[in-house]
Amino acid sequence: MSGHDAHLQQFLEEEKRKAVFNEVVAKLTETCFEKCVTYAPGSKFSSSESSCLTNCALRYLESGQVILGRLQNMGQ
Amino acid sequence: MSNGEQNPEAVMHQVKAELANAYAQEFFTTVRDKCFAKCVTKPSGSMSSGESACLEKCVDRYVEATKMISHVVLQAYQRGGQ
Questions:
Q1: ipTM of this complex prediction, to 2 decimal places
Q2: Which domain holds residue A41?
Q3: Cα gap B17→B1, rounded to integer Å
Q4: Which residue range(s) make up the domain with B71?
Q5: B1 inside domain
């Protein structure tokens, strides 16, 4: 592989990583905005909305771990 | 993309531009979906000032929520969670 190709390869992997990250964030925001912002949005988030968004994102990620663990158990 | 002899810088530039464009389009579609649902609950003959004010605030909050969550996810990943 030439230097150029290696460099390009590295660039593409980095962009892919960023795209996956953005996708996770987009999915979480969609789900959690729906759950946490129950009324017409105001000029700023209330403290309960803010903490709901943060908790929702973290619990969503954690849920993935739990579900993955369960599914892996089934495969064995 | 034309022939194989493009310089890598140009390819990278194009990839970045296309990804940014795809992201922006998808973001727009999602925000319109979410905010329309929250703000235009009973569509009438014309959009009320209350509805458009709600849409504007909704966009601001959605952008804010995206930033908050991206921060949270980044921290969770760094803690080795994944």
A1: 0.87
A2: 3-75
A3: 13
A4: 8-78
A5: no
Place of tokens 């996770």: A24
**Both tokens of residue B44?**
């009438």
Find out whether A43 and B80 touch, Cβ atoms under 8 Å. no
The answer to whether B38 contacts A54, with C-beta atoms less than 8 Å apart, is no
CATH, residue B17 = 1.10.287.810
For chain A, the domain total comes to 1
What sign does the dihedral A43-A49-A55-A61 (CA atoms) show? negative
Q: Which residues of B touch A51 (CB under 8 A)?
A: none
The whole-model pTM stands at 0.88
- Asked whether residue B3 is domain-assigned, the answer is no
Of A28, A30, A42, the CB nearest to B57: A42
Place of tokens 């946490």: A36
In order of A30, A36, A64, A68, B68, the CA distances from A52 in angstroms are 13, 6, 18, 24, 11
Residue-level pLDDT, tens digit, chain B, 82 residues = 455 567 888 989 999 999 999 999 999 999 999 999 999 999 999 999 999 999 999 999 999 999 999 999 999 989 875 4
For residue A61, the chain B residue with the least C-alpha distance is B82
